[in-house]
Amino acid sequence: LCEGLYVWLDQLPSTINAEQELLEDVKEARVSFDVDFCNMLIRKRCLRGDYENAKNVLMAIQERNLRPDMMTFGVLAMACQTQASADQLLQDINNLGFRPNVEILGTLLKNACYQRDCNFVIAVMKTLKEEGLKPNETFLKHLDNFFRFASKSLQYQETDDSGRLDQDSFKKYRKYYRSWRQTMSPDPSPDPWSQFQELRPEPEDKILLNLGKVKWENPL
After folding, report:
1. Cα dihedral 129, 131, 132, 137 in deg (nearest 10)
2. For 23-66, how does the pLDDT look when each residue is reduced to its tens digit (9 = 90+)?
3. Same domain, yes or no: 172 and 115
4. Is residue 110 part of a domain?
5. Residue 193: inside a domain, yes or no?
6. For residue 14, what pLDDT is reported?
């Protein structure tokens, strides 16, 4: 039955009403679902930007006496758009006896860069170091793209066009970034997901790359 639910969820219109109707039908039919189904639902909601309802899926996991796994936290990381929500996620991971991996931290870093929150970016970098993890290629790509983006954005003005990035915040990030890169060696092992990825930047990264095509000082 779970396999059938996966198919229904995958083919379902990506709206909260359609998803709630499916969950109600499942409840009335007394059909059981597992944590993998919940992970799919979280991811589906995150992909359309419905972060609050994505986090609400945790209630369904608790009601069914299911146990979140690392995939649950991996998809929930997509919903963490602030440092506070990221801190809460990391605390939840620790409370359940897990440790964050570089993929989860990479997702948090991507969100921090997209939000142009230098303090958030630094916090993720520190967590990676404290956990004794090595940055993979994707993690470093997000950092380097953000450095180029911020360098261009602040080249002739004190804040970027959103008003979220100022000179002082970026100077703090740049100082930490340089020292961090000198002490953190990259993970030489290949990204386990690389074989499934297209060799092109994601939409968010295209924005950073386009804005970052300028001459800039080597941070190292």
Report:
1. -60
2. 888 888 887 888 988 899 999 998 888 888 988 888 888 888 88
3. yes
4. yes
5. no
6. 82
The CA distance from 138 to 117, in Å, is 19
Cα 215 vs. chain centroid, distance in angstroms? 28
Q: Is residue 199 in some structural domain?
A: no
One domain, residues 111 and 60: no
User: What would the two tokens of residue 83 be?
Assistant: 């440092």
Q: Are 204 and 110 in contact (CB under 8 A)?
A: yes
90's tokens = 């990391």
Which residue in 67, 4, 25, 16 sits closest to 45, CA to CA? 16
Alpha carbon distance 127, 193 (integer Å): 22
Compute the distance between CA of residue 138 and CA of residue 124 in angstroms, rounded to an integer. Answer: 14
Report which of 24, 35, 26 is spatially closest to residue 5, judged by C-alpha positions.
26
Cα Rg, the chain, nearest whole Å: 19
How far is the C-alpha of 38 from the C-alpha of 44, rounded, in Å? 10
Structural domain of 133: 102-155+165-185
Q: Is residue 139 part of a domain?
A: yes
Cβ neighbours of 164 (radius 10 Å) = 12
**Full-model pTM:** 0.75
**Domains contained in the chain, number:** 2
User: What does the alpha-carbon distance between residue 78 and residue 97 come to, in Å, rounded to a whole number?
Assistant: 21
